[in-house]
Design a protein that fits this description.
Layout lengths: L2 H4 L3 H6 L11 E9 L5 H11 L3 E13 L2 E7 L2 H14 L2 E6 L5 H11 L7 E3 L16 H9 L5 E2 L3 H8 L6 H15 L2 E4 L8 E7 L5 E6 L9 H14 L4 H17 L2 E5 L2 E5 L11
Length: 291
Amino acid sequence: MAKEESRRSPVTDAKHRPGFQTAAPAVVLTIAGSDCSAGAGLQADLKTFSALGVLGLTAVTCVVAEVPGKVSRIAGVDPQDVREQIELCLTNFPVGAIKTGLLYSPEVVATVADVLEEFDRLPLVVDPVMIATSGDALLQPAAVETYRARLFPRATLVTPNMAEAAALTGRSVGNLAEMRKAGEQLAREFGTRFLVKGGHLRAGEATDLLFGGAEMAEFSAPFMKGVSTHGTGCTYSAAIAARLALGDHLEEAIAAAKIFVSRAIHEHFAWQSSSGEIHVLNHNSGCSQGR
């Protein structure tokens, strides 16, 4: 073997020296439910964080028995246990952004709001997980008012899908014009930025609309026909939080996250099961976006 080829690289040598440390990544905390099929919830968040090069921390709010297309059972975690998880993470790690997913009960929503008031300097992405892709209700009805009073006004960004925007405004939200009216109402009511997601438009483009800035911003990607996954909303909001922790401005973070989730859908995995074909997001498809 030539002398040059046999020489170990400085990086390899360094990693074998005692005390070697790599540069610490940005850190993001997800406060969300656990999905046993790992396509949504905090499992999807962790996959997203890893793909984008940030370290993910978790605070588990509930345990969900589900597979794509079906939610079978939800069991909540004691609010005091949720508080302890969040406080331990925030006091021991340099968290750069926080994302909330399924909080499930009004008691957990209130607990999360209480804790986050002490850390109001951090970017907060609130995914108001109320209704699953399958149509199953996920959030206890009484929790909605706590979201409205405590979390939405505190958020950097709220990311409702069309069904959630309809539930929050009492409006019909089935097309772009109705998305605009709902988004304008929500941003005005809560004084924060709202990204109304149009992934269920079933049109040629999956278009999301951002409200609350100087003017509305639009983010579009080709709609993927024939693909039925779950966890797209979780992945999208997690990617936005990751990009905020990496230093992106909000619109930059949304644009990068839109590309990431679109790739994960386009390059999805598929299996045949007893209930038909199952589609699962491919979070590894967007690894090149990490820093």
